[in-house]
Every structure is written in C-alpha cells, then in structure tokens.
# Entry
Amino acid sequence: MIRAAKHSDVPRLIELGTMLHDISSYSALAFSPEKSAAFLHELINGHNGVVFVAEINGEIVGGMAGGIVDQWFSEETIAYDYSVFIEPSRRSGFTARRLILAFVEWARIRGARHVQLGIGTKLNVEGTSKLYQSLGFEVFAPLFQMEFK
# Structure
C-alpha cells in the first residue's frame, strides 16, 4: 500500500535513507539523521512537498520525497524528486513504480507542468533509467558534478 507519510513514519524513513546513503555516491558526505528528519517533517507539513511511504503487512519498506516549485523563468510549475529509498530486499521495481506513480498523481493534481526524476546515487543507473522510461519519462539532460577535496 502507498500512502502519504505521517510524522510517526519519519524514524523508519531515516533508517531507509541511511541504508541508501551508505551505499550511494553520497556516502563520502556526512549523513545527519536529525537534519534529514527535520526536512522530512517539513515536507510532510508543507504544501510544496510530499513524502509517500510503501507499506507491506504494516511495515514501511520504502519512501519517496519530492517537491513542487514554479520554474524560475515561468509561472509553470515543476515537480521533482528528492529521493526514492527502498529497503534492499524490496528493490525489484514494483515498490518504486508504485511510489513514483503516487508522486506523479500528486504532481498532476497540484498542476505541475513537468515532473522530473533524477538518478544522483550512481546505483543501478541502467535499471532505474529503464523503470523511469517504462513509466513514460524521457531522458532530457545529463547531470554533472565537480567535487572539491
């Protein structure tokens, strides 16, 4: 079952987010559970953000956080993901698919003109790209990063 997150879900979402962080390209950066929890609480409270959870047999096995803003050059709005985080044993694609579809519907209801999803973790880029494309997303731009040490 996919549903909007509640504040009481945040500790479990932080556990899942920690698992993702530890194996992602962001693992070299310090992870702050407190800051992450405050951010999720803000999204749950706010009009311009959302957090969904995936529940199986009463256990939260995944989540997705996203937001919506006006384009900087237009009155049109754009929805985007902050993260999709799923328990490793549940990363078959079905849970992610359901979370993304819930987010897309949330964005549509709020009048978004575009929905953009990224892959910033370097994890299963090919498989995640195929998932996004199977849901109707098109590749539109690469993402580049420079790191200072």
User: Anything to note?
Assistant: The two ends are 43 Å apart (CA to CA). The mean pLDDT is 93. The domain at 2-134 is CATH 3.40.630.30 (Aminopeptidase). Strands lie at 2-4, 49-56, 59-70, 77-86, 114-116.
